[in-house]
Structure to design on (191 residues):
């Protein structure tokens, strides 16, 4: 049976109406750390399925890739439709000042970027998106650097992600864009 079916059904009886998720500093691999990715935010949800769907998309995965999420949605626990969610941003962190340092894998992925004053959630999302492309064997040398951050505002360039790079020839909308959208954009426009 695996874990997916029990997790989905458990949520029909142990209902969660308010979920707080610590998204201050995640990791590329596992929660004990090793390759920290700073996002500097706390997430709050009233729908557990929406919570897990949003988190998937923040890490460059589609909710459909995680069986228990779609099963829970089918059981009426909640919705996977993040596009229709009412998202409220409070005290947005627009600073690039992080107390955390990049380590091995994150540093390597960051070498594909041209980051100038990027907000943590934006830059972290790009790191997750690049990690998905790495998983798929799609990252290669010689690609043009991906611009990201407020230092690119009003400037021209080849390719960038986020509203700050709106004047670039190719730019992904969003502030910050989701990692899942970044993956699709980069597959179509960059690699
Ligand atoms: S697009 Fe938005 S979130 Fe991304 S760096 Fe610019 S201001 Fe920050």
């Amino acid at each position: 049976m695996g874990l997916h079916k029990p997790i989905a059904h458990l949520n029909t009886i142990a209902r969660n109406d308010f979920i707080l998720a610590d998204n201050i500093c995640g990791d590329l691999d596992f929660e004990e750390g090793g390759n920290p990715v700073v996002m500097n935010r706390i997430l709050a949800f009233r729908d557990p399925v929406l919570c897990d769907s949003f988190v998937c998309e923040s890490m460059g995965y589609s909710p459909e890739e995680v069986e228990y999420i779609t099963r829970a949605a089918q059981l009426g626990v909640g919705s996977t439709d993040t596009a229709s969610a009412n998202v409220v941003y409070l005290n947005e962190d627009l600073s690039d000042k992080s107390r955390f340092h990049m380590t091995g894998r994150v540093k390597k992925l960051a070498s594909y970027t041209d980051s100038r004053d990027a907000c943590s959630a934006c830059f972290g999302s790009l790191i997750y998106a690049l990690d998905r492309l790495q998983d798929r064997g799609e990252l290669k040398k010689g690609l043009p650097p991906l611009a990201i951050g407020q230092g690119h505002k009003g400037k021209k360039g080849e390719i960038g992600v986020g509203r700050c790079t709106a004047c670039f020839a190719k730019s992904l909308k969003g502030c910050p864009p989701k990692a899942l959208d970044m993956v699709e954009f980069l597959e179509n426009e960059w690699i």
Q: What stands out?
A: Residues 94, 118-119, 122, 149-150, 162-164, 175-176 surround iron/sulfur cluster (CB under 6 Å). Residues 26 and 70 are 24 Å apart (CA to CA). The longest strand covers residues 36-45. The chain has six helices and six strands.
